[in-house]
Queue: 4 jobs
Job 1
Amino acid sequence: MKPAPLEYVRPRSLPEAVALLSDEAANAKIFAGGQSLGPMLNLRLARPGTLVDIRHIPELRAVRADSRSCSIGATLTHAELEDGAIEDFSRGLLRYVARGIAYRAVRNRGTVGGSLAHADPAADWVSTMAAIDATIVIHGQAGERRVPAEQFLVGAFTSELGTTELLAAVELPRLSVAARWGYYKVCRKTGEFAKAIGVAIQDPQIGLFRILAGSTEGRPVLLTRSAETLASRGPEYAARDAREEIEEALPHLASSHRQQLAVAVHRSLQQLLLAEAA
């Protein structure tokens, strides 16, 4: 099948794109990498009146940084992060995550902002940005607003992003030289969306200790009690607490799914421990 008839518009600025989205008569939909939207258009699961191509807006490719934080534009591709096209603010975490997303052809076109806006709980960036304590920057007619990445998902394929708003950038802390992290996802085969994701990050210099269970049925879950154990007693003790906390925090999930989440989190903490020893 092919998409239903629609208009194609290529705005050159962020305000122009926001104005197009705010026109109710246009029934506009954002297009960036198109790796999720393209198939939906072809199957006519999505039938916008206007396709707003934001790939050529300079503001959405901007990278800004200072000594404490950084901001990456929403239309940077997974491949650009994988290839080190921008400074590595995360001490290798973003680059590691990027190279494990789908296949290279997808990474060449798929964008960080597009993945987040699609709001699939199994997507890598949804869990990664929540784990690293990132902030999602959203633009709309009312101006700019910021949402903590851990709160961005409301549920599966539903986010805090309004229909007339645009995800413009992601802000994240600059990890220090003392930072260590682990990232592990459970998949049936390479390139598939994850059945479970575990992320563990510690950076004593900036006071960041986070453990996350992702690829649930909705919003990723921060394991706060286990993170406190990580800060006070280290990864081995945190791994023991994490299994119990997953059982308590996600009782509605199937036991097999909770087991996969526990495995993913445990493996991420093992990676962190190995990084400490290196």
Job 2
Amino acid sequence: MEIGLAETIKALRGELAQAVADGEGQPIRFRVQSVRLDVQVAVTASKEAQGGVKFWVLSAGAGASEDASTAHTVSLELTAETADGGPVLTESAHGAVLED
């Protein structure tokens, strides 16, 4: 199954949005400063009408069987922010409660 790089980032965005929603009303929330995404990709030239180059994210284990010349590691450093440019706050992993 081929998963595009844009689809991967879209899924990551969805996961962060869910974490934000889960954090609403929690006594402890985390601010996301940045997100580092390291993926193994295959680069292919498209022969479709519009052509172009496609980046496909390789599934776990696929990188080992790929030819070294077609598999590449891409590292993306993403800064998370809300639509209005504010910080992204997510919930704590266990919904921790602060005691007096």
Job 3
Amino acid sequence: MTTLDATDARLLLELSRNPRATGVELAHRLGLSRNTVQARLARWDRAEVLSGFDRLVAPRALGYPLSAYVATVVDQHRLDDVVDALAGIPEVVEVYGMTGLTDLSVKIVATDADDLYRLAGQILKIPGVERTNMALVMRELVGPRTAPLLARIAGR
């Protein structure tokens, strides 16, 4: 994938402000041709520039008010199996491969403290997981965002 340019950034910023806007509306608001907008949207779709919409649903709204990050150390020979097992747990919402003292950072959501305890045990039982260290999220202070980066690229 190529790096996004200023026009891409302007279009993505407008799309983040108005996610239901049509290609025609986006073109009008930004002074672009409809074909330019459609071509860029198609290119982003092919290159998987835009993430899925499920990330916009707050776990709290689904009955999962608790979040935690689980720093996980794994047997490197079993890393793929561990990741597959983690992906099979619905309450695992993110998994990142890390450098440093831990191998994976696993974000989980839970309904309450008992559910959190159950999930921690479930992760520890995965063959290949050697140890974990959990940190409870107390409050989200800066959520996932790309708008400031887009604004910089767009020249704003």
Job 4
Amino acid sequence: MPTNNIQPAFGVIGLGRMAQALVVPLLAKGHVDPHQLLAVVGSETTATLRRTELPQGVQIVAAADSRAIHVWRAPLQLLAVKPQQLDAVAQSSAPAQGRPLLISVLAGVSLDRLQRLFPGHCCVRAVPNTPALVGAGLTALAWSDGVNAEQRRQVYDLFGDVGEVLELPESKLDAFLALTSSGPAFIALVAEAMADGAVLAGLPRDLAQRLAHRTLAGTAALLDQRELHPGELKDMVASPGGTTIAGLRRLEQAGLRSALIEAVMAAAERSRQLG
């Protein structure tokens, strides 16, 4: 790959699971030519691994590679490193040419900070979540000044391929992240605990896990499609003196409701700290 002949249409800085979840559908649907995508990762070992995971033609280089600097020549750039790496990445970046669009998926990092670190860019904050891996994601967007209509369309195309997209005031993004980005881990913990309970009650482990997953998926579909308040569904299931109300009593005694509220609040506060 000649160093002087790299002019990517799409640059990706950091190629972890979330970045891959966004990039792979773009490539699969032909929205981006693999040869027009340049990704920069932390090490040559990671670059070698990622080349086996993405379509042939995608250019993936380590940060120490001299070709990495060309990622900043792309008119559309996805910033997907860890928040703790942001300052180092900014220091290694090249001056922007023509006000490229920089989309950051870094938790808690404000538009103001992004604009200070990348003054020649138009910046966007995006908060996607891991269900994007199966096309069921949720992404919230907040824009800096100067993002034009064509750039907004590009951002909507990028995230619309992996789920639902909405715009929020930047001040709401930490709460959105706590619910939708951290939330899958909280729900996974609930699913694991429910399966453990079924094993304790006598079901085989594999069956208990599958049934717990299907129960959660079916419940989410019912709430969404019937537009039910969660309390309505709870009351539909909990008949007088029955099994469900007995279980709900134990959950209230254990403080599950309060624990989940505090978990979301803690995640939101941590997002603010990272910023």
